[in-house]
Amino acid sequence: MHRSLSSIRRLFFVAVIPFAFFSCTTARASHSYISYSSERSVLYEIDRTKVTLDKNPLEALARAWALRENTDGFPAVDTLYLNALDSSKAAFQSAVDSGRWSDAIRLYSSLSVLSHPPAEWTTDLLRKRQSDAWNEAGNRILTALEMPVASTPEDEAPSTAIVARMIRGTVTVWVDRGLRIEGGVGYADRVIGSGFFIDDRGYFITNYHVIASEVDPSYEGFSRLYIKLAGDTETRIPARVIGWDPVLDIALVKTEIQPPAVFQLGSSSDLKVGNRIYAIGSPAGLEQTLTSGIVSAQNRRLLSLGSILQIDAPINQGNSGGPIVDESGRVQAIVFAGIEQFEGLNFAIPVEYLRILLPSLYEGGKISHSWLGGHGRTATLPGSTQSVGVRVFYAVAGGPLDVAGIPKGAIITAVSGTQVRTLEDVQNALIRERPESIIRIDGLLVSPDGSTTSRHWFVYVQARPEKPGLQIVNSDIPSRALLPLTGFELEPVGNTKRYLVSSVVRGSIADESGFSEQDVVEIREFRVDEKAGFVTIQLFTKRRKSGYLDAFIGLFASLDSPSYF
């Protein structure tokens, strides 16, 4: 199955448009920023942390740490921190006792970051216990994740034996969604995709968008999932979804059969532009189709998280979810989508993301990713063109950055000890972190004279919202929400509804719409279409570049974009 160009653009497309409001809601503010210099704000945060302690001791621990670091003269803070520390250690012991090793590792890592690792345990010992549990459950593929097999760059076609094995391990995925009524006539509504076995117990991988109707709570129609094997295209074999990730478009599905063949996961980190790759799938439902091509480009930013590969192997409707393999038949990527309007422009999800997600996919359910509640861009220091990290332009009120006390303008230079130079680096680092963990963030504070001071913070990362922009418009006033949504930074003019543009983010909607500093802006309408995933803003403006002539302008932006982290 292909995603259309419009559906891909929905992730990040912005435009200047004439206005027509549909079914939508108006933004509302419901949270406030934390001010550690305000006694009233600090007392409120102390009370909030006490409430959080009963529900989530690890989050309370991070909040108490931030209070200790950013305040002085509040005796209740030290007591609160010690209580949260004891409760977090008790939560760790409970996870160990019940064999919840993923939770135990998350809690241990968080406590270790704050220099309070539980006694008699180490990360290696916990991972050994987790590996033993995987082996006992038959999850041998998870125990092999630490030993990736590099790709084979030889420009030779795979042998006939390898091709035969790969085809046997690939399936056609069918999702029967009943009848679709158009013009009073019923048509069969089916989604066709591909998949590949990774586990001899019947587990296989496909794209989330292929099986979305099986698990999407907003879908209310009929949906039945089954597969067809390459050697038996007549038999429909039922299957069920185990785990899924809508953001990276990956799903783990299980059947109750013994797979004819199982794929081995490679390592796409070795792939380079020009390397030959092979795609296997069921384009248009035609099973056992093998096509070849090369890696055309890397690091394409078509998803709100992560970067994908551009390939030139012929991909058609039905290929989605199939494997991209090297000459030895090892999986290097997963077919993601083709753009219908541009034949030959196709994409694949690097297998590295699958390797990261697999433990969570096997645990079952919807995958959540970590986020810091921030919006920013890759940063350079004055007088240099070398990127040094990510500058924080905006922090969500009450979000991880705000709670930790990381100010606007700070430059993030490392996440959990891994140096980051670009926004993509930060997002890739966060993909590897479990939500509801405490991590260390290193960064720089930049003074007005351009000098920098190194700092570090401990941040409790939350689960990334499906639409980060929606959380922003629900937690802030429109004039501030315009910064992450459109790239404006506004300053109020007196008590009116007018604002001066104090800065414009380069490459943003505001920049591309011709706005600049000192323009006058009045917000006339600010509305959100949550279902479509867009925000629409109507402005009355006087722009310097237009000779300060009065004008009405409509702006249109997605509630998600690669600039959120």
How would you sum up this structure, described in words?
27% of the residues lie in helices and 33% in strands. It is of the alpha+beta class and 565 residues long. The protein folds into 4 domains: 5-28 and 477-558, Roll (Pdz3 Domain); 39-137, no CATH class; 160-365, Thrombin, subunit H (Beta Barrel), CATH 2.40.10; 370-463, PDZ domain (Pdz3 Domain), CATH 2.30.42. Strand 20 and strand 21 (418-419) form a beta hairpin. The longest helix is centred in the first third of the chain and has 23 residues, at 75-97. The protein starts with a helix and ends in a 7-residue tail after the last strand.
List keywords for this structure.
565 residues, alpha+beta, Pdz3 Domain, Thrombin, subunit H, seven-stranded antiparallel beta sheet, 28 strands, 27% helix
Highest-level CATH class of the largest domain: Mainly Beta
Helix % is: 25-40%
Span from first to last CA? Answer: 29 Å
What's the alpha carbon Rg, rounded to whole Å? 25 Å
- The mean pLDDT is 86
The low-confidence parts are 1-29
Secondary structure class reads alpha+beta
Strand content: 25-35%
- Per CATH, what is the topology of the largest domain? Thrombin, subunit H
The count of DSSP E runs of length 2 or more, i.e. the number of strands, is: 28
Q: In oligomeric terms, what are we looking at? A: single chain
Total discrete domains: 4
The number of helical segments is 15
The general outline is globular
CATH architecture of the largest domain: Beta Barrel
Query: Could you give the order of strands across the largest sheet?
Result: 7-6-3-4-5-9-8-16
Largest sheet: 8 strands, mixed
